[in-house]
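Recap quiz, item 2
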Amino acid sequence: MATIDSKIPKGPLAQKWTNYKNHQKLVNPANKRKLDIIVVGTGLAGASAAASLGALGFNVLNFCIQDSPRRAHSIAAQGGINAAKNYQNDGDSVYRLFYDTIKGGDYRAREANVYRLAEVSNSIIDQCVAQGVPFAREYGGLLDNRSFGGAQVSRTFYAKGQTGQQLLLGAYSALSRQVNKGTVKLYTRYEMLDVVIIEGRARGIIARNLVTGKIERFFGHAVVIGTGGYGNTYFLSTNAMGSNGSAAMQIYRKGAYFANPCYAQIHPTCIPVHGDIQSKLTLMSESLRNDGRIWVPKKLEDAKDIQEGRKTANDIPDEDRDFYLERRYPAFGNLVPRDVASRAAKERCDHGFGVNNTGLAVFLDFKYAIQRLGADVVAQKYGNLFQMYEKITDENPYEVPMKIFPAIHYTMGGIWVDYELMTSIPGLFAIGEANFSDHGANRLGASALMQGLADGYFVLPYTIQNYLADQIQVPRMSTDLPEFVEAEKAVQDKINKLMSIQGTESVDSIHKRLGHVMWEYVGMGRTKEGLEIAMKKIKEIKKDFWSNVYIPGEANTLNTELEKALRLSDFLEIGYLMAIDGYNRNESCGGHFREEFQTEEGEALRQDDQYSYVACWKYTGENSDPELLKEPLDYEETERKTRNYKN
Amino acid sequence: MGKEKELNIKLKVWRQRGPQEKGNFESYTLEGISTESSFLEMLDVLNEQLVKEKKEPVVFDHDCREGICGMCSLYINGHPHGKDTEVTTCQLHMRRFNDGDEITIEPWRSAAFPVIRDLMVDRGAFDKIMQAGGYTSVNTGGIPDANAIPIPKPVADEAMDAASCIGCGACVAACKNGSAMLFVSAKVSQLALLPQGKVEAAKRVKAMIAKMDELGFGNCTNTRACEAECPKGVSISNIARLNREYIKAKLKD
């Protein structure tokens, strides 16, 4: 069995990163110019990495599927970014941010990585301000903070409800500067279709020009994957339509381990589903839980009247409202972590208390905040979110409560990386949501932006040098080498195969079938039997896909259906991986809730003695189940406890 | 949400194989479109129908479908992003239309945004303008504390308003001159307002304007069409600031 070496530096937790940096190998400026780095993705992680590596003097090739790097899905993050600045004097510290993140992740993340994340968090805020990111400020001119789920301090920096947009535009502008300087070359509307391995190291990629349909080869001394998460496996999610897990699956098939695939985050505050032609779900920022109160009716007959249109929220008097989060979790109330809030909503709806025609919604009410703060203050804080909600639902949240329901939002699982963010393939790195990351089994709000930028600005630009320092003698390789030719041929064969099926089912209709299975059996509540059904059904859908999908048009030109089909072929594999991982993990933790493992109060019940490990799945071939490898998680600094948000 | 209805509509959609090829309008009929669905979901239904008929779907740019990525870019009944105010195409909902409506859908039309296929255009010119100077020249690391320079709240708020531009190009599509002044002014304003961006404000505004002119965008003649169609409500007062910044910079030459 292969051994898993996470390469965690020795020494006390708080000194590990400093020690690492003091002793790692560096590449001198003259040699940096000779080294090519491929960065796939231009989200917070990809753009910040490409910009930082370019600024250091490396020669960077940066790819994205959109027409501009600025459109990566990080742009849609609303609420904010955490940092341990303690500007509010409310007792925050690097240690506390580290601790909250470990606890929020339900003790399934690596201590050393999380501590480093908390350590570099403050530099991110400095960096963004220097780029001209217009964070919200107090009247004194200093930066404002808000609180977020899973924390008892206010450590979240924000720019209206558009924090992701502003941070991404900051990284994008830094990237644009490097493009202008010639250190970064951009490849927009290009999609990676495989990684090229030469003598055991990642040495390039095969990518398809989405406009011309041409398959092209690119060399790099190292390859970095910053391609985001795989939430779209569920078809309906808060991810962008183009978000996909294909790059992750390509490198998985070449030997990179896929870690904890079953850890998917279901976000509690999304706009409920309206019908079967729906294409995506829209998130309403978690920051709304700061001032909005979540409730359903106390009486079943009231819920029924609302479901059938006889009553509205405003007909229910306060004493008949069940503020179930405040009731169940007095200490954190509406600010419990996302997994807890999502399950609590499901629990109420499962009991018939849902508040729309499908019975799958709860209220998020601003009446009390408006009474307390005035409509003006509420508008200033959440105006653009309220506007977005009204545009979608045609209901005014200043007058009637919002209706929300959980939806797939983020995937904590991803490509396994060591402390240096290197995958199990030498020279191949994964950053941001694409790696299995620092969030354990559940990510806290405002931590994704922090992790993406930490990886790209302040971690990878160091750790990648420790690898590249040994590569300075390696000349740029020709892309006519047999490994490139073979990889391109395999890609071409796959495309030809897909195009030749000429069946009767559209890509989307098959994807929706996969999505239903995922949501039903690999969603908020999972069981052994359900996961067995999921694995069986996914295999069937995969068979249907490969025998009956219909893709119109030609492969050697722009073909959006072919793009979707290629991505779906990978989602089918990921769906299966998620199910098998969930089946293996006989415990509940964070976003993975196995119904057999819960406390009497319905809370997640971990099995630390058996499952305190990172589940790393190794590809063994197309028709066999993957092999499970385990990276044990040792907790030196924190004592594992059952998460308690009650008192 | 109990107001859901179903619509039957006719579409006239611009179809064009490639940048050099001649395009034309194709007509389609759709039935039973829910008023709760978004405009792009309606187009999904059209494409699903086309694929069923073994025809090629209509190509259009779209991604986040929540009004922030700036990818979607449809010219609907003579308006970029449709007639609704302060929304992107993906946030436009079918409840804004009536049963029996005929809806005309075109790509952005501007010399600087060539059509790639159907409704998809190339907006790479915006990236090139950004690369010319839409940034502060700081490398990663070695930055003083974020609170080292206080910024008055009204200034930060004004910078934020300018920064809310999503780079969709509706301003260019709306302008009879095909001007990119609203886009450029939003970035110039954001950075000129903030102390971090002031340092190289003069250099930036000259470089971005020069690039904008070079790429074939037209001039601003104050028709305010851009402001009226901007999905993020970016104000043309930014164009006034851009002009001031430009004159100030030129006077220093």
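The mean pLDDT of chain B is 96.
The beta strands of chain B are 6-15, 24-34, 74-76, 79-80, 102-107, 115-117, 120-121.
End of item.
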